[in-house]
Design goal:
Elements (H helix, E strand, L loop, with lengths): L1 E13 L5 E2 L2 E2 L5 E2 L7 H13 L5 H4 L12 H10 L6 E11 L9 H12 L6 E6 L5 H4 L3 E12 L5
Parallel strand pairs: 5-6
Antiparallel strand pairs: 1-4, 1-7, 2-3, 5-7
Helix pairs in contact: 1-3
The chain binds the ligand Nc1ccn([C@@H]2O[C@H](COP(=O)(O)O)[C@@H](O)[C@H]2O)c(=O)n1 and 2C-methyl-D-erythritol 2,4-cyclodiphosphate.
Subunit structure: Homotrimer.
EC number: 4.6.1.12
Protein name: 2-C-methyl-D-erythritol 2,4-cyclodiphosphate synthase
C-alpha cells in the first residue's frame, strides 16, 4: 500500500536564536522562534508523515503548552513519530521538500540536511530531496520575517495490499 503526505510550517526569524533546519545549525545572525528548536523543515516533514497516515499533526503529538517540549530537538520529535507503533512496516519511498527563505543562502547546507533526514528514515540521500527558494523579496517571507518549509512524501507498506 502506498500513501502520500504533505506538510507545511512557518516560523518567525528573530535575533538571539540559533537557526536550525533539517537538524543542521546554519550560521546566521538570526534564528527561528518556537517552543521547540523551531526546526521548520523537520516540522513540515513530521506533519507530512502524520498526514500520510491520517495521524493528526505535530501540535497534537507534541503540544506547545507542554514544558517537556520546550527547546525540544526536532530530530527527536520526528524520531519519536517514526519509532511509534503506527509507523511499523511503513518505509519512505521518497521525500521532496522546499524551504522558502529570503536569507541566508542555504545551498551549502542542503547536503548535510539530506544526510540527517536520510539517516532518520533509514534510506539513502537519493530518496531525500531538499530545495531552497527565496520569496523574491515580496511580503513577510520576502522581508525575512520568517522561513517556511513544505514537504511532500510517499510511504509504502509492503505487508498490506493496495
Ligand atoms: N535561501 C535560499 C534561497 C535560494 N537558494 C538558491 O538560489 C536559487 C535562486 O533562488 P530564487 O528564489 O531566486 O529562485 C535557488 O534555486 C536555490 O538554489 C539558496 O541557496 N538559499
Ligand atoms: C514543535 C512544537 C512543540 O514544541 O512547538 P513549536 O516549536 O512552536 O513548533 P510548531 O511548528 O508550532 O509545532 C508544534 C509544537 O507543538
Amino acid at each position: 500500500m502506498l500513501r502520500v503526505g504533505t506538510g507545511f510550517d512557518v516560523h518567525q526569524l528573530v535575533s538571539g536564536r540559533d537557526l536550525i533546519m533539517g537538524g543542521v545549525k546554519v550560521p546566521h545572525n538570526k534564528g527561528l522562534l518556537g517552543h521547540s528548536d523551531a526546526d521548520v523543515l523537520l516540522h513540515a516533514i513530521t506533519d507530512a508523515v502524520l498526514g500520510a497516515l491520517a495521524l493528526g499533526d505535530i501540535g497534537q503529538w507534541f503540544p506547545d503548552t507542554k514544558e517537556e517540549f520546550k527547546g525540544a530537538n526536532s530530530v527527536k520529535l520526528l524520531q519519536h513519530v517514526l519509532d511509534s507503533k503506527y509507523l511499523k512496516d511503513w518505509h519512505l519511498v521518497n521525500l521532496d521538500c522546499t524551504i522558502i527563505a529570503q536569507e541566508p543562502k542555504l545551498a551549502a547546507y542542503l547536503p548535510s540536511m539530506r544526510q540527517v533526514i536520510a539517516k532518520l528514515f533509514n534510506v539513502t540521500i537519493n530518496e531525500v530531496s531538499i530545495k531552497a527558494t527565496t520569496f523574491e523579496k515580496m511580503g513577510s517571507l520576502g522581508r525575512s520575517e520568517g522561513i517556511a518549509a513544505q514537504a511532500n512524501l510517499m510511504l509504502q507498506n509492503t505487508t498490506l495490499e493496495k
